[in-house]
Amino acid sequence: MTRKQEITRAAADLFRQKGYPATSMRDLAAKVGLEPSSIYSHIRSKEDLLTQICMECAHMFLDGMEKCEVSKMSPPLMMDYLVDFHCEMAVRHPSSVTVFNDEWRFLSPDILGQFLKLRKAYEIRFKDILMKGHRKGDFYISHVDIVFELIIHSMTIFYKSGKRYSENDLKIQVKEFIKRAITKDTADGIPVI
Amino acid sequence: MTRKQEITRAAADLFRQKGYPATSMRDLAAKVGLEPSSIYSHIRSKEDLLTQICMECAHMFLDGMEKCEVSKMSPPLMMDYLVDFHCEMAVRHPSSVTVFNDEWRFLSPDILGQFLKLRKAYEIRFKDILMKGHRKGDFYISHVDIVFELIIHSMTIFYKSGKRYSENDLKIQVKEFIKRAITKDTADGIPVI
DNA sequence: CCTACCGATCGGTAGG
DNA sequence: CCTACCGATCGGTAGG
Questions:
Q1: Which nucleotide shows the minimum CA-to-C1' distance to residue B23?
Q2: What Å value separates CA B41 and C1' D16?
Q3: What is the rounded distance in angstroms from the CA atom of residue B155 to the CA atom of residue B171?
Q4: Do A161 and B176 touch (CB under 8 A)?
């Protein structure tokens, strides 16, 4: 790991703990054992650190989506795949994912534009899976925009719940929760005695 | 509305927009048309503003829970009531609710303790409703702690989605989503032809 | 509610 | 990678 990567990871940890605006470059310098000004031999600016964390994370999520799509699985299996993927992202990159989700609004205006384009691309591809499942009869989705957001918000549990639950419990419970929420009740129209 | 209330509301708006650490008392002064130092004739400190916003919100949620409990409704109706209540909180107090949810970690340590006690009390009462519904057979909940968090995270859509959807669409969709997610599939064990 | 001002801290640069 | 330092801004106080 290069010194730059080391600094970027330390920055992600601090941005998560204290939030981006409340993190000072002096905090960061102390964490990596440098004098404050020495940081600038490795990185351009504080803003640049946030940019790299958010953009790298955005591309990782898009790579996961790519793998999901080329697998040609059924929509329900694709949903399971995506939930597992979000969980693994949160486990492997807890700080980056938190910063990606909660601190992106502090990106500079031009970077923010690029970032939102990536987010939108992900959203469209996620909704396509939901709609495909709906058309096939696997899902029952009356308002795909809202359902998409509900699923995404549900998955924030992976990085917001800390280490309170086992990774496996979380994965299973979240998949079940979402599956129930978007699957057409198989008893619809069948009277239950 | 007193001058103090006016300042507190303006503070909630700014804390939501920019985050607590990134909001300066000079921003706030400009917003209410005062010189920066004049703010301190009405409030004690920046920290105090955050405290009042978060604590007031916490008590409002507990009041909602109180009303829900005394109604003696069935657990499914209580869930609908709570979802509607969260939605109305977000509609009526969008800034306060956002600050309550996203900025509470910047509370000073002693206030943070009080705050977390209120949050925990709410959580326990919410889970009691879920467990009661489970025992009655209305719900199917295999891990109440995780399900509680999933429901709470789902409801953040009310203040995170801005004005993208109508209040009524949101309410209906969120209630349906959660209801499906925690209701035992009535076809369980019934073969579907 | 204002003018004037405080010490502390901020992100970042110059020069070596 | 360090020493030394910059102008800007921070939350808040004194005194009226």
A1: D10
A2: 14
A3: 10
A4: no
Average pLDDT in the B50-79 region?
A: 98
Radius of gyration of chain A (CA): 20
Q: Is the pLDDT of residue B27 over 70?
A: yes
B172 burial (CB, 10 Å; 0-12 / 13-18 / 19+) is middle
Joined tokens for residue B83: 């979802």
Among the partner-chain residues A147, A169, A183, the one whose CB lies closest to the CB of B143 is A169
Interval A13-27 mean pLDDT: 98
Please answer whether residues A156 and A178 qualify as being in contact, where contact means their C-beta atoms are separated by less than 8 angstroms: no
Residues 8-47 of B with CB under 8 A from A: 18-19, 21-22
- Please report residues of A whose CB lies closer than 8 A to that of B120: none
Q: How far from chain centre, in Å, is Cα A160? A: 11
Contact A156 B153 (CB under 8 A): yes
Q: Per-residue pLDDT averaged across B104-133, rounded?
A: 98
Closest nt to residue B33, judged CA to C1':
C1
- Give me the amino acid identity at B56: E
Query: What's the rounded Cα separation, in Å, for the pair B131 and B142?
Result: 10
The pLDDT score that the predictor gives to residue B68 is 98
What is the rounded average pLDDT of the residues B72-94?
A: 98
pLDDT value of residue B3: 94
Residues of A in contact with B19 (CB under 8 A): 19, 21, 105-106
pLDDT reading at B160 higher than 60: yes
- Does residue B123 register a pLDDT over 90? yes
